[in-house]
User: Fold LysR family transcriptional regulator from Dyella monticola.
Amino acid sequence: MSRVPLSLLQQFVQVARLGNLSRAAEQANLTVSALSHQMRQLEERLEHRLFERGPRGVTLTAEGCSLLEAVGDHFDGIEHALTRYRVRRHDSLTVTASPGIISSWLMPRLPRLLATHPELELNLQSTNTLVNFEREAVDAGVRYGKGEWEGLRSEYLFGEWIAPVAAPSLVARMAGADPLDLAQWPLIGDPNRNNRWNEWFAHYGGETPHRYVAHVDTIDALRQAALEGLGVALGRMVTSKSWIDAGRLVVLGNRYLPVPEAYHLVYPPRSEGHRGMATFRTWLHEEAVAYCREMPQPLRDEAAA
Assistant:
């Protein structure tokens, strides 16, 4: 045990904190299988099981928690001590955001940024997990929430609206059903355990259904279920717009409901002097303003109100 390589313990700390082998492997520039093998090797050396492995990631056992508590802060101290010696590249920027906002909003707009700033090297981290800016080499992020994240600068970009969306195949099957009377339609339970549906019916009237055709636990799964024609979902307009524009989803009834959460640019204080960050920040706010002008009229009316 005295000869356990520090590299194994370092990878253990990363996996334990992220709870995800894929993300930890990406940050370590390893394959998932290689990192998984290293973790099993560490367990064999220590003769203790450190992780419970499941379809949604890994969780620590009691022994794993004890080990993380014992060694985690020491690696943080080393990382902090080495920060001052890093060479900071002002033409390289690492940005984190959810897969939905990257694919549906950021990616279609990035060519404009890189066309005007070809010197900028942009590294995108696609994850639904909130990164720890103190521990990870990330410069900024686009987050969905109410704008309050401890220790981070937060700048409002644009709001979010929800609306009932369905695949054209479902609309064809439900020919004759009133798009304003959702009681006639199969509804998909939302990841918030139907709080959004409750808000929708409270605002527009109608009764919450006694049962839903299905329940999902992530926004990505909700959108996919709607795309497959399983039922009607309350879709976020920002991340659903590209699917609506492509004709793969249809808004039922042309009614929208604003939600308390919005999209924000977030970054730690250390990123304020980063020239690449300043370029990205200016561009992002310009794109946000332009996006708000492109909103459907009902959404622009809500925004103005």
User: Anything to note?
Assistant: The two ends are 65 Å apart (CA to CA). The chain has two domains: 6-85, 89-304. The chain has a mean pLDDT of 87. The chain is about 45% helix and 20% strand.
